[in-house]
Amino acid sequence: MDSIPLEDRSSLVLNIQYRNLLGLVMKLTRSAQNVLDYLVSILPSVRPGRPETFKTYGEVHRALGLPGIPRELVNQGLGTLADAVSEAGLPGITGLVVTQEELVPGKGYFSLYGRQPDDFQWWEDEIKKVIAFDWSPYSLTAKPATSLKPSSKTPVASDGKKLERVETTTYRILRETLLARRVKELHKYECQICGETIELVDGRRYAEAHHIQPLGSPHNGPDELGNIICVCPNHHAMLDYFSIPLKYNEIITHADHEINDEYISYHNKEHQSRKS
Ligand SMILES: [Zn+2]
């Protein structure tokens, strides 16, 4: 790799990460994403080789408010997550979920990675990788601030600063794109204000994603699902220019996408201030 120029090298790294990222995000069901978000949230208190700092099936099951018994967690997102993570070549984060009796992961965890169920050294090393890894691009509920760190897996070139900057920017754009896409897919590319969609010649649909409290100066809105609305191009322009107010009760909603009314208030204040 040393002979590859920096720019090429960073784009190579990004290509690999981009593919992994897309692979993971696209395959995760809502329940698997919830398990991932939860496991990412406990990482600060996890110590490799000390499974008492991990979470039992029961603890995860309870924390996520899932119905049924803890054993069902495997079919309530954990299994899908384990498959997606291993397929994307990411560190085995599902090894943080352990049985209450023995404090070890399910046998499926080891077999997924072609390991024997007593290969605890591998497990410990894997958890070290999990902790060192930057999960923010994969955990869609993570705050934007933490998503700006480049992956710790990233090779550091002699001009490491530059590579880091390239990656940071790309991650931010990539994240924005993924969030926008997720919102549009949830709403089947139908405008959340008028219900219209645009049918393309090849059968696909077209819509746009708008940040209700816009990103960047002077608005400095956050890049999160609750601040994004799926709209047709007409309504997008109207929102961009704050030419119409947003009425919370008239917006078409989806159970997996809750718009935060704080951002709606922000929009409406901007709309008011432009009137008269
Ligand atoms: Zn519309």
TrEMBL record:
CDD domains: HNHc (cd00085)
Gene3D superfamilies: 1.10.30.50
Residue runs in coiled coils: none
InterPro entries membership: HNH_nuc
Start and end residues of each HNH nuclease domain: 178-237
Domain of life, per lineage: Bacteria
A Pfam match: HNH_2
Protein name as it appears in the record: HNH nuclease domain-containing protein
Organism: Acetobacter aceti
Lineage: Bacteria, Pseudomonadati, Pseudomonadota, Alphaproteobacteria, Acetobacterales
